[in-house]
Amino acid sequence: MVRIMGLKAVFVWCIWLGLIQCSVGGRVRHYRFDVEYMMRKPDCLEHVVMGINGQFPGPSIRAEVGDTLDIALTNKLFTEGTVIHWHGIRQVGTPWADGTAAISQCAINPGETFHYRFIVDRPGTYFYHGHHGMQRSAGLYGSLIVDLPKGQKEAFHYDGEFNLLLSDLWHTSSHEQEVGLSSIPLKWIGEPQTLLINGRGQFNCSLAAKFINTTLPECQFKGGEECAPQILHVEPNKTYRIRVASTTSLAALNLAISNHKLVVVEADGNYVTPFVIDDMDIYSGETYSVLLRTDQDPKKNYWLSIGVRGRKPNTAQGLTILNYKTISASVFPTSPPPLTPLWNDFERSKAFTKKIIAKMGTPQPPKRSDRTIFLLNTQNRVDGFTKWSINNVSLTLPPTPYLGSIKFKLNDAFDQTPPPVTFPQDYDIFNPPVNPNSTIGNGVYKFNLNEVVDVILQNANQLTGNGSEIHPWHLHGHDFWVLGYGEGKFKQGDEKRFNLTHAPLRNMALIFPYGWTALRFKADNPGVWAFHCHIEPHLHMGMGVIFAEGVHKVGKIPREALTCGLTGKKLVENGH
C-alpha cells in the first residue's frame, strides 16, 4: 500500500527530523510491509518462502530523488526477528534506518511494527533485502528504483524500461542452512537448485529442452503459473533500459541476450562511461543499468539467460524470452540460449570489471588519504567451527546495536579494543594458513569525521587445499572510489598505480582470487556501518567488519530502534 503526502507536510516532517537533505519537490511515500512466510512455487515446486504483503519477491518501490520513504514494517514471522536493509541508499541523517540488526537497530520482534523513514537522495537502481540471519536466502527482497525528479532527463535516451531482480533458490530452508554452517564438521549449503528472474525459475522442466543436453522435459505453461517466466515484450528498432540487480545469496551470474549487444551506463547507482558488451558478470549485491537496442530480426524471439560464474556450477541456467511484439510470445527462439562462460574464467570477470570507469563529471577521489587499513580475508577455525575472518578476527555481532551503544557510551556493549588494521607481512597468501586458528570479535574501526580512508582488501588461499574465491564486498552508508586491482600481495609502491582520475564510485567491490582491491572513501556520514562480503553464508560465518564515524553528530534515534540489550535497559531505567 502506498500513500503520498503533500509538500507542506513534507516540510513539517523534515523539520521534526532535523534533516537538511529534504528536496523542495520531495514527497512522502507511505508503504505498509507485512513480512511473513508463505507457500509458493517459484521454480514450479512448492516451498516456504519469505515475502511481503503476500508477494514474492516483495513489492517494488519506485520514488523520485528527494522523496521520503515511510515504510511501516510489521513482523508477522511468529518466532523470529527481522529487519530490512535498503541496499545502496546512504541513509544520510538517518543511520538508524539502515536496517542492519545489531548494528543500526534491534531486530523487530514478532508482532511489532517499525517505521523506516529516509530520503532517497540520488537516482539509480537499488534493492532491499533482509539483514538478519539468512533471511535474504529465505526470499526477503525486492526492487527499489529512484528516478530523476520530474522534468529532468537522463543523459541517455530510451523508449522503455525493464527491471530484472536476480536471485538463487535452495530447496533446504534458510534455518537448515544456518544450522549446517554452524556445525562441526561444517555442512556447506551447496549450490542453489534454481536461478530466479523476478522470482521465477524452472526446476523440473526446461524452456530450452529442445536445444540443450538435458533429461528435463520441455516446460508446458498454460499461463498464470507462478514459475512461468516474465517475458520481455519489445518493439523493433527501439532502445530499452534494463535495470539489473543481484540479490543472490551465493551465485555470481553472467547475463546475456541472444544476438543482442548491451551498453552499460550505470553501476551501483552511479553513472559510468558507457561501454558495449556481449554479456555481463553480476555478483551478489551489484546493480547495473544496460541499454538494449532491438535491432535484430523482428520475426524471431530471443533468449535472455543467466548462468553461474565464479563457482563450479551445479545449477541450470535461468531463462526468459525477449519477445518482439511483431510475433507471438509463444514462439520459442530457434537457436540455443547463450552459452555461459566457463565458471573459472576469472580473466573475463576482471576484464569486464576494469572497463567500469567513472562518467565525466563524477566527483574525483581526494588525491591522498589520511589513513590506510589492510583487511586480509582468510578461512579459519574457531574452536573447531569453520569461519571466515578478517585479520584473523571473525565477526560476531553483539546483543546491543552499535549505533546506540556508541552514542550513549555504553562501553560494556562490545569489545573496546580496536581490531587489527593490518596483517603480518610474512603471511603467505598462496597457501593454506600455517596456523588455522582464529578468534571471534566485535570491535569497531572508528574514523574521525571527514577522514579520508583507504581500504586494501587482500584475498588469500582457503583453509585447505588450493583455491581462492571471488568475494563481493559491500559498504553501507557510503560510496567509495575503486582505485585499482592487483595480483598477489599488495606491496609498497602499488599505491602509485591507483586510478585517481577515472575511479568509479561504487558501493560494491570485488576481490579476485589471490589478489587485492584498493578503495578510498570519505568518512562523512555519521553513523555505524557494516562492511562485509555480500555472499550470505560468508557473512554468517564472520566475513565482515564494522566502521563508525561521527556518532556524536547523530540526531535523535527512534526508541523503537534501541529496545534490546543495554540500550533497552537504559530506556527502562530512564522511564521511556
UniProtKB/TrEMBL annotation:
Keywords: Copper, Disulfide bond, Glycoprotein, Metal-binding, Oxidoreductase, Repeat, Secreted, Signal. The keyword Zinc does not apply. It catalyses: 4 L-ascorbate + O2 = 4 monodehydro-L-ascorbate radical + 2 H2O. Coiled coil: none annotated. One of its GO terms (cellular component) is plasmodesma. Its EC number is 1.10.3.3. PANTHER family: FI03373P-RELATED (PTHR11709:SF394), MULTI-COPPER OXIDASE (PTHR11709). GO terms for molecular function: copper ion binding; L-ascorbate oxidase activity. InterPro entries: Cu-oxidase-like_N (IPR011707), Cu-oxidase_2nd (IPR001117), Cu-oxidase_C (IPR011706), Cu-oxidase_fam (IPR045087), Cu_oxidase_CS (IPR033138), Cu_oxidase_Cu_BS (IPR002355), Cupredoxin (IPR008972), CuRO_3_AAO (IPR034267). It is an enzyme of class 1 (oxidoreductase). One of its GO terms (biological process) is response to hydrogen peroxide. Transmembrane segments: none annotated. SUPFAM superfamilies: Cupredoxins. It is found in: Secreted. It holds the Pfam family Cu-oxidase_2. Its cofactor is Cu cation. This is L-ascorbate oxidase. It comes from Phaseolus coccineus (Scarlet runner bean). Dimer. May be involved in a redox system involving ascorbic acid. Belongs to the multicopper oxidase family. Residues 1-25 form the signal peptide. Residues 35-148, 162-325, 435-550 form the Plastocyanin-like domain.
